[in-house]
Amino acid sequence: MTKLSEIVLNGLALGSVYALIALGFVVIFKASGVMNFAHASLLLLGGYVIAQLHDELGFAGALLVGVVVTAAGAGLIEMLFIRGLGKVELHVLTILTIGIDILLTTELVRRIGSDKLSLGDPWGAKSVEVFGANVAQARIAAIVVAVVLITLFFMAFRYTAWGLSMRAASEDREAAALMGVRMKRVQLVAWCVAGALAAVAAVFLTASPTPGLDRTTGFVALKAFPAAVLGGMDSALGALIGAMMIGLTEALAAGYQSDLDALGGGASGIAPYVVMILILLWRPTGLLGSKELSRV
Amino acid sequence: MARAEHQPPQGNEPAPAEHPGGAHPRLRQAGGALVVDGLHVAYGRSVQALRGVSITVPPSGIVTVLGSNGAGKSTLLRAISGTLFLHHGAVEGGTITYNGQNLRGRDAAAAVRAGIVQVPEGRRVFAGLSVAENLQAGLLGTGDRRSARAKQARERVLELFPVLAERETQHAGLLSGGEQQMLAIGRALMAGPKLLLLDEPSLGLAPMMVGRIAQVIREIAEQGTAVLLVEQNAAVALGLAETAYVLDVGEVRLTGPAAELARTDEVRRLYLGDHDESGHAGTPAEGTPHETPAAATSAPRATLRRWRG
Predict the structure, then answer these.
(1) Does the residue B123 lie in any domain?
(2) Sorting pLDDT into bands at 50, 70 and 90, what band is B13?
(3) Contact A85/B at CB under 8 A
(4) B273 lies in a domain?
(5) What residues of chain B lie within 8 A of the CB of A87, using their CB?
(6) Closest Cα of chain A to B36: distance in Å?
(7) How does strand A133-136 pair with strand A127-130?
(8) Which of A124, B61, B254, B307 could join B246 in a cystine, given CB atoms 3.0 to 4.6 angstroms apart?
């Protein structure tokens, strides 16, 4: 039983981190209509900045700078490419983000090399007992931080003018524009928020028991992508649920690895995608994706 | 057919119906007027949607722009409200000023700040948001959502459309077509516009609902908001408006007081579905080489007259 509760807690922690990333996907998709494939490289950027600065500035200072730099980087992408190119079809912009991702990742991987960088987080390898389960402190911190940030995010989405603008714009851009919504500003803020969330996610994605930031961290981040897709891509709540499902599935697949030997090793790596495919077969618009809501 | 009885009392009428070859009626008033002068709009490189359109909307009252599909009515509204770019269109010539302030090349947010709000064609309510949230969204351009003014605007809208108060928590997508149109108008009124642009509010609505919407438009105008009404349903529009313009393939073809325009043979035939050409005392307004019999014989228009009772 201890094992199961450990696995569940680990899964929730992993799910929390994926949720931070998946919300970034969703918020950008809602604001710009673009699937941001450059998200993984933005996360890597945030992690790299924190790794480089934590010796000088301390963890908190480095985290702050990392968040700001990543938010600014995302905002820059929005201004230069998403908005700057003007009248371009959305699928073109989506593919463009793949190009940005490759460029940014290549440069960061060149700098990181084969190192494993520590982000200097204060939790180290310490672990705590929760419900009889032995769980790394960083994982508990991930859950706590994610709960706080995601709550703030949902409150902003629900109650602020920005949140209402976002929701209105994702429903109907022209009608929102006609209401006087400043679309450019809403879009820019969306990208910056997504970038900031990615930088925070980078901390927990690389904290113990993971060895640290390395060149593959970006790939790990991409597992949040199926979370956003199976949630419905334009639903923040869907992304949250999707992220938890992916996190739990991955943790369970890893925890019961020995029982899954028949499938070959590494089942946990593909579990998120298997879950995504199964869910989409069942519900093609995702769990909470916007269906055509109309009177018959 | 006594259409003239619908004409509200109005002091300064513009010049009677005339061909817009050169002059158009200048209604320029002390301020608060929307003046569109010689507007040229193109979509892409080849499609000329508007060719030298000039219209004036005084600070109060209802002005209507009539025309069939593709005449350029929606384009005109998009140019005024700053949403042309969303349709890959651009203003290529002419001016748009409101209250003396330039609106050409400005975005929709600027138009809203200037006091011009458009109700888009096809209602376009935010289907996934609740009715209350849709109304809130109408305040987004004003920068204040919780002030006393916002509260007042909300009360005014709910007074105008009591049905919206009953459905506040419902998703807007679940409302009927007429209710959605009311919500779309209510949402636009939340910003407290000085000039309301309405794009085909009667489109796709049941006859009774068309009458109800017409009544609301009159009420809005009586409360002091100027209205620029774009319609295919000429019977309704001419009954409401003081001044009317008829757009045809991107140009103003006729203009004048709505009541007089309604009496001209050309408008009767083209837009009111009147096939009986004999025995009318109206001003003959012929002279355009291309008459479009297709527009004249379209069945729905012939039935529209009945809606006016």
Answers:
(1) yes
(2) very low
(3) no
(4) yes
(5) 85, 88
(6) 19
(7) antiparallel
(8) B254
Distance, in Å, from the CA atom of B145 to the CA atom of B221, rounded to the nearest integer, reads 24
Q: Tokens at residue A143, please?
A: 């859950």
ipTM surpassing 0.90: no
Mean pLDDT of chain B: 80
B84, B87, B112, B126: best to mutate for the A interface, most A CBs within 10 A:
B126
pLDDT score recorded for residue B268: 79
- Token pair belonging to B37: 């002068």
**Measured between alpha carbons, how far is B92 from B105 in angstroms, rounded to an integer?**
10
Query: Do A239 and A231 contact (CB within 8 A), yes or no?
Result: yes
B141 and A179 within 8 Å at the Cβ level: the answer is: yes
Q: Residue B26: its pLDDT value, please?
A: 37
What residues contact A23, with CB distance under 8 A and at least 6 apart?
A: A150, A153, A194, A197, A236, A239, A240
pTM over 0.90: no
Assign residue B239 the CATH number of its domain.
3.40.50.300
**pLDDT single digits (tens) A249-275:** 988 888 887 777 666 667 778 888 888
Q: Which helix (H) or strand (E) holds B50?
A: strand B47-57
Contact (CB<8Å) B125/A290: no
Asked whether residue B21 is assigned to any structural domain, the reply reads no
A89 in reach of chain B (CB within 8 A): no
φ, ψ for residue A90, nearest 5 deg? -65, -35
| Amino acid at site B234 | A
Subunit contact A172:B126, Cβ cutoff 8 A: yes
Choose between B17 and B68: higher pLDDT: B68
Q: Which domain holds residue B131?
A: 28-307
Domain ranges of chain A: 2-217
Q: Using CA atoms, how far apart are residues B249 and B237, in angstroms rounded to an integer?
A: 19
Q: What is the pLDDT of residues A174-196, one digit of tens each?
A: 999 999 999 889 999 999 999 99
Q: Is A156 on the interface with B (CB under 8 A)?
A: no
Residue B293, pLDDT score? 41
Interface test with A, best of B80, B112, B130, B140 (most A CBs within 10 A): B140
Name the domain count of chain B.
1
Chain B residues touching residue A171 (CB < 8 angstroms)? 126-129
Amino acid at B11: G
What residues of A are in contact with residue B82 (Cβ under 8 Å)?
177
Q: From the CA of A57, how many Å to the nearest CA of chain B?
A: 38
A11-20 pLDDT, tens digit each: 999 999 999 9
High-pLDDT (> 90) share of chain B, %: 57
Helices (H) and strands (E) in chain B, counts: 12, 10
Specify if B234 maps to a domain: yes
Q: Which chain A residues are Cβ-neighbours of B85 within 8 angstroms?
A: 87
pLDDT digits (tens, 9 = 90+) for A215-257: 888 888 888 888 998 888 888 899 999 999 999 998 888 888 7
